[in-house]
Design goal:
By secondary structure, the chain is an alpha/beta fold. Helix content is 35%, strand content 14%. The chain has twelve helices and nine strands. The protein has a six-stranded parallel sheet, with helices on one face. Helix 3 links the parallel strand 2 and strand 3. The chain starts with a helix and ends with a strand.
Length: 333
C-alpha cells in the first residue's frame, strides 16, 4: 500500500502537473502520507478531507481532539470532513425526486436521513469543521443545501466554504445554483464525466431532466467559484490529467463524439482558473497558492504548448515538461 501511494505521488500526480491534492481518504492512507513526508518522499501537498464509514464517528473524533479545518502545515493539513448523502447515477443510487427512466417506483438511495445530515452539518459547522458533502441527485442536493442553511441560521458565518461534491453534474437546476450562491456554498462539479457518462444521461433521466447536466457556465455566470476535480479512483482514470478535464469543460465532447449542451461550454481561461485559483479557494489557500504572484508559494508547471492558442481538441494532449513545488523541480520530462 505504501509503495502504491508513493508511486501515485511521485509519478501519477506530479507528472500530470498536480501540486496539491484534496484527498478523500481514511486514517491509514494519511499515516502513509505522513511517513512519506518524514522520509522526504512526498513531493506534493495534501489536504486531507477526512472520511470514515460512519461520519458521526469521524466528526466526533476530530472534535474530541480539538481539530478544526486548516490544522496542519503547508505540506499536510486538514481540509474538512467528507459525507455521503447518496450514490451515483451510473450505479443507479443517486437520490432523486422523480423515478429513474424504466424504473417507475425507484428514486435511488439515501445514506442518511435529512435529520441525520442536518445534525452532522450543524455540529461540524459549530466546531469549525468544513463539510464536503457528496450529493448527486436533486433530492440529495436539496438535503445538503437545507442542512447548510440550517447550520447558517444556527451559527451565521459568511466564509464557511462548505462544499457540495458533484453539484453541477446532473439535476443542478438554475434555482439550485442561485441558492448555492446565496448560501456561500462551493459546488464541485466533475466535468470529466461529460466524456465518461454524457452519452448515457438521457437513459436514466430522460431528455428533459438531462438538460440540467454539467451547467458549468451557469455556475460561473452566477458568480460561484467551482474548483476542478478528478474523482480519478472513483470514475474516469483519464481525469488524473487536468488538461483532459479542462478539455472536457471547454469542448464538452462525449466518448461517442457528441457535444453535450454546447451553450454551457466555458473558455479555456475559465477552465484553467477552475484547476488553479478556484482549487486554492476551495482549500482556503488562495492567498498562498493558485496563481503566480510575489509572496505566494513557488508551485508551478511548464507545459508543452500554449494552452490559450492551440486548437481546443489539442488541449487534452498537452504534456507537462516540468513540475516545481516549493521552488524545487520534482518532475522533469
Amino acid at each position: 500500500m505504501k509503495e502504491t501511494v508513493k508511486i501515485g505521488a511521485q509519478k501519477w500526480w506530479v507528472q500530470q502537473g498536480i501540486t496539491t491534492v484534496h484527498c478523500f481518504c481514511g486514517p491509514y492512507a494519511m499515516r502513509i502520507y505522513q511517513e512519506l513526508l518524514e522520509e522526504g518522499e512526498l513531493p506534493l501537498r495534501i489536504q486531507w478531507i477526512v472520511y470514515t464509514e460512519d461520519p458521526k464517528i469521524g466528526l466526533d473524533s476530530l472534535i474530541n481532539l480539538g481539530i478544526r479545518t486548516g490544522f496542519g502545515n503547508e505540506r499536510i493539513k486538514i481540509g474538512g470532513l467528507k459525507i455521503f448523502v447518496d450514490g451515483a447515477f451510473m450505479g443507479l443510487s443517486a437520490a432523486t425526486y422523480e423515478p429513474y427512466i424504466g424504473m417507475p417506483n425507484y428514486c435511488g438511495l439515501l445514506k442518511l436521513t435529512p435529520q441525520e445530515l442536518t445534525e452532522i452539518v450543524v455540529k461540524a459547522h459549530r466546531e469549525g469543521l468544513r463539510l464536503c458533502i457528496h450529493a448527486i441527485g436533486d433530492k440529495a442536493q436539496d438535503m445538503a443545501l437545507d442542512a447548510i442553511e440550517e447550520a447558517l441560521k444556527t451559527i451565521p458565518k459568511e466564509d464557511h466554504r462548505h462544499r457540495i461534491e458533484h453539484m453541477g453534474n446532473e439535476l443542478t437546476s438554475k434555482e439550485r445554483i442561485k441558492r448555492a450562491k446565496r448560501l456561500g456554498v462551493i459546488p464541485v462539479p466533475t466535468v470529466e464525466w461529460v466524456y465518461a457518462y454524457g452519452d448515457f444521461i438521457e437513459t436514466y433521466l430522460g431528455p428533459e431532466r438531462a438538460r440540467q447536466s454539467f451547467l458549468i457556465k451557469s455556475l460561473l455566470d452566477e458568480g460561484l467559484r467551482p474548483p476542478g476535480s478528478s474523482d480519478t479512483l472513483g470514475t474516469e482514470p483519464l481525469s488524473i490529467n487536468p488538461f483532459f478535464s479542462i478539455w472536457c469543460a471547454v469542448a464538452r465532447r462525449t466518448f461517442a463524439g457528441n457535444v453535450l449542451i454546447p451553450e454551457e461550454s466555458i473558455s479555456v481561461m475559465d477552465a484553467i482558473r477552475m484547476y488553479t485559483i478556484n482549487g486554492a479557494y476551495a482549500g482556503f489557500e488562495e492567498n498562498i497558492k493558485g496563481s503566480i504572484e510575489p509572496g505566494k508559494l513557488a508551485d508551478m508547471i511548464v507545459i508543452s504548448d500554449d494552452i490559450l492558442t492551440i486548437p481546443t481538441d489539442n488541449v487534452k494532449d498537452i504534456r507537462v515538461e516540468m513540475t516545481i513545488i516549493d521552488g524545487k523541480i520534482v518532475y522533469q520530462r
